[in-house]
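hi!! sorry for the late reply, been swamped w classes. u asked for the two structures so here they r. pasted raw, havent cleaned anything up. first the sequence of the first protein and right below it the C-alpha cells
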Amino acid sequence: PILYSYFRSSCSWRVRIALALKGISYDVVPVNLLKDGGQQFSAEFKAMNPMQQVPALKIDGITLSQSLAIIHYLEDTHPNPRLLPQDPKKRAQVRMIADHIVSGIQPLQNLSVLKQMGEKKTEWAQNCISSGFQALEQTLQHTAGRYCVGDEVSMADLCLVPQVFNAERFKVDMAPYPTITRINKALLELEAFKVSHPSRQPDTPAELRA
C-alpha cells in the first residue's frame, strides 16, 4: 500500500492510526499542503484524487480517498482488531461520533476554509471546534468507557485524537471538556497512536519532530 499523506493532516492521521492498529505496513508519499502553492493541486495528484485532498491510499489495485471510506475498507479486508463493535447500538454510536467530528467539526476548520477567513482564521477555528466539542462532550458522557464507546478502541477514537490535536494547535481551552481530554490522554498512550503522530512522520519538519 502507498499512503499519500501530510504530517499534520488530521484526516491522514486517522488512516495512519488504522493502518498501525491493523499491522499493515505501507509506504508514505508526502504531499505538502503548503509548499509550491499546495502540492495537492498538481495535475498528477488531481488525476489520482479529483478532490485534491489527502489522504489517498493505493491498495489492492484501487485508489481510495476520504478517510472514513479508507478505514471502512481496511475494516472489511483486515477485520482484526475490530474498529466497529459487533453490537448494533454501539456500532451506531461509533459512527455517530465519527460523523460528528469528520462532518461537523473538522471541515469547518480545514485549511481551505481558514484561507478564506484571513485574519480571523484562529478565532473562527476556535469557535467551530468549541461548539463541536460542547456537543461531543455531552455525547461522550453517555457512551464512553475508557475510550469513546466503551473500553475498545474504535473508529470514533481514530477521529477524536487528531481533532484534539487541532484544538490544541488553535489554542482552544480544553478545560470545559474533561471527558474528551481524558479519552485523548488514554489513547495517546497506545503505540498505534504514537507511531502515527504528526511529530513522527517522514515529512515532519525538523523543528516539530518528537
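now the second protein. again sequence first, C-alpha cells right under
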Amino acid sequence: VIDVLCGRLRWSGALVLTEALTCSLSSRSASQSDTAALPDRMPEGDSAGESIHGKPSAIGNFFKRLGQIYQSWLDKSTPFSAVRWAVTLILTAVYMIRVYILQGWYIVTYALGIYHLNLFIAFLSPKVDPSLLDDPDEGPALPTKQNEEFRPFIRRLPEFKFWHSATKGIVIAMICTFFEAFNVPVFWPILVMYFIMLFCITMKRQIKHMIKYRYLPFTHGKRTYRGKDDTGKPFAKET
C-alpha cells in the first residue's frame, strides 16, 4: 500500500511539474510574440499620432509654401543689387510721404531711423573687430602698399542682409501707420535733433575706428598691374 501511495504521489508531482513547465513555456512564447508584434504596431501608433498631432494642417502647408516662394524670390534677386536698392528707396519715399500727409507716427519713424543707423554701422564695421585682436596688423584691413597681400574687407553685416533688414523695417513701419495705437503724440523737432546728434556722434566714432586700424569698408576688387608698353619702333620692312 505504501509503495502504491508513493507511486501515486510521484505521478501527481510529475503532472504538476509538467503543467507548470507547460504554463511557463506558453507564457514565455506569448510574451515573445507580443514583443515581436510591437515593431509592427509601433509604426501604426506613430502614424496615428502623426495623423492627429504630427501632420501639419492646411494653414501650415500654406505658410510653408509661401515661405518657400518668398525665399526663391530672394535668391533670384541677389545679383540685382541696384534694382533692390531702388525698390527700397521707393518704399522709403512712399513711407515719408504717408507720414507727412498723416502728420503723425513720428515715434515709429524715429525708431525706424535708429534701426537703419544700427544696420548701417554694422555694414561699415569689419566682421572681426581689430581692437579685440592681439596684433592689429592681423585685422581685415586693406593693403596700404603696392606689394602687400590683397585682403578684402569682410563686413559684419553683408550687403544683402543689410538690404533685406532695411526693407523689412520699412514695411513694418508702413504697417504700423495703419494702427492708431502707434501714433504716440510727441514733439517731432526734438526727435529730429536727437537723431542728427546721434548720427554725427556714431559716425565720428566709426571714422576714428577706421583711421586707427587702417581699414576701408569698401572693396572694389583685386588690383591688377600692367607691364610697361613696348615703345620700341619696329624695323622697316624691306621691299
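hope this helps!! also noticed smth abt the second:
The radius of gyration is 39 Å.
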